[in-house]
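REQUEST ID: PR-0412
SUBMITTED BY: lab tech R.K.
PRIORITY: routine
TASK: structure prediction, single protein chain
INPUT:
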Amino acid sequence: RASDNLIEVLASDAIGQLPDENAAEAIRRAVGTNIFNDQGEGRFVSIRGLDPSLNSVSVNGVQMTSPEGDQRAVPLDVIDADVLERVVITKALTPDMDADAIGGNIELKTLSGIDQEKMLLNLKVGGVYTDQTEEFGERFSAAYADNFLDGRLGFAGSASWQSREFGSENKEADDGEWNFDNALPFPEELEFRDYLITRERLSVSGNVDYMVTDNQRIFLTAFYNDFSDQEFRSRVETKLGDGVFSRIEGNNIFLQEEFDTAEGEFSDGVEVDRDVKDRKESQTLFSVILGHEWEGDFGKFDATLSFAQAEEEEPNRLDSDFAYDGGTDGVVVGEVGVDVSDRILPNVVFGDAATEAAFNNPDLYEYDGSELLNGVTTDEEFAAAVNLQLDDVFGDIPGYLKTGAKIRLRTASRNVDVDVIEVDDVTLGQFAQTLDFALDNLGPVPNPSQVRDFVNSQDQEDFERDLVASNEADFDSEENIYAAYIMGSGDFDALRVVGGLRVEHTEFEGEGRNVNENIDPDLENITFLTNDKSYTDWLPSINARYNFAENVIGRASYYRSVIRPSMTAQTASAIVNDDNEAALGNPDLDRQTANNFDTSIEWYPTESSVLSGGVFYKQIEDFIALQNFGEFTAFGQTFDEASFFVNLDEATVFGVELNYQQALDQLPAPFDGLILGANYTYVDGETSVATEEGERDITLPRQSENVFNAILGYDKGRFDLRVATTYRDDFIDEINFAGDGVDRVVDSHIQVDVDMKVKVTEQFRVFAGFKNVNDEPFVAVSRYEQGDFLSQYEEYGWSARFGVQYKY
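STATUS: complete
OUTPUT:
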């Protein structure tokens, strides 16, 4: 309400009102936000329906880097929601902010002790339960804040720990490709996947403030998060594409083998693999900022030094494969088919019992080798900034003049090593296990611990380096940003205007790999590709706020912003397989710039209610998207197919935001404890892509048209109950996913969460929360002219958290 620009704020009380696992899930309750999930848990935040890569994330003023290398979006599932004091989402930037945000900036604030009137102590001890695996886990958090030396020294610290075991069941059509050559379509390759995951999350923050004098403060804030997944993925791949059509029976289409009489063997037919992935992936986010603030009669001055690091490690990841060898040349003898009565959940069927028995016989699957991977991705940024504000410089007009400068020095790299081993005369029968798989008959799959023991028992000299896999993802890049700004503020009765100009100069250098398995199968001479570029952006902004009445506020704003390509997307590279298909880095990829317009009005009928509405418009130049191409020439080589990120034509985004929040404390008892909240966002984003048939208009990738949040609560006396519903529309996930004009589309998603708390004493309360009580799955489809067909379907079930809290 008091802000000069358009922001949304979530206080710590609001963050803790629902069973949110992490920072991303807490943020999705804010106006105009939704999230992208990973394994049923929120991971990336979308603002106003836009791709998370169009946002920036900062912690206590430190711009965060991403541990994933191939994107700038920061995964917020790494951060536990319990360590946050508040979240500020800025939707209209001012010149003193970093300009890399089109959707908005997400600022995470941790606890400070300098302003505490008395000691704060908050302890939580609880458990978590996952229905899909029927397993329990634990969750603990603690926060402390106080000040000393007559309020001159403040200290605050918080920590949380969570460990839980969960999983999911999945069906996928590999690459989303379906075959339409017969009366019944069928997936070229149908995969069944079973995931078992142990997820651990540690978040720690510390803040020290010292008032050197009454108007000088120095501070040090550190923030550390460690997130790890131990994942066992069991997968069965049924490769139907080379099968020969046999017959159709109802909604079942059957395929069989083709016998080559000249060669005396089966040349084509259905093939099957059963494999297991055993990997522990860890991601860390770390930031630290040292600062000094001085405030005098004439204004303010501050200076900061900061460092942010994001890292992802995959140590000793083991992928092992067992290929069907029951028929000549690995082909299943007999009829194998697909029941496509449900095109989103097709099932494997068999022509007779003998074929089914052979298909599920672990002794007929031969060990096809293992890959042992070790990989590290690191993204670091050093920054230094100074700001000077002069007050009362415009005579009779209240306001200020502010200027500053900032340097950001960023480096990112990835290094991966992959070794392979193959051993003869070993079958799946030596390692087979069976798992519960409600979606279909999974059949025998490898036991991951037994397979790892087997691989570890082999002579290490028998491992051979896979040069393609060891180089295709490697890169090194540097990005330096030099920024300066000037801005001012003036009050004209009920009107306040804040505006100015920011300039950012960017210098980039990248080094990628040129790995062409097609022309150099032994990869004896892997070469490097380098590129560099520099550019300058002039970024004006203006924010106006008008008080129509004491409780009615109007806002209007314009700002220009820039989103740079991901480090890997703009680094020159060429990874070419033996089919002459290439994945390329694009050194000519330009940054995205946007003109952003906002207007809104807010009405605060009471101190505990708000009704607001707003309209926004964004004009994005050089919008970036991944595209697939046919024959293409780059880096002196010609490829049969190529995929890389490109700049599309201009993209436009028009949207409307509506928000209503109210505590109905004016009602008679017992209804005076009711709480209502709802927000709705409509987004219409458009761009066009080039196809062989000409331009095609599409909605923006990963943009949902409608996003809705609603909360019904009751908070009175000892009881606090909240029921929350979140909804988002479907969106394009990948353009031309399985051929020209065929996109991968993620289906709409609605989720219901419930939270309950009972106050036992003034300090103690017990709580229980249930997430995804409606058991909403994740569904992605390939959108053909004939309709929607399976790309990915995944079920997670519901989960619960429960425990006790002590607050002093």
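NOTES: The chain has a mean pLDDT of 93.
REVIEWED BY: pending
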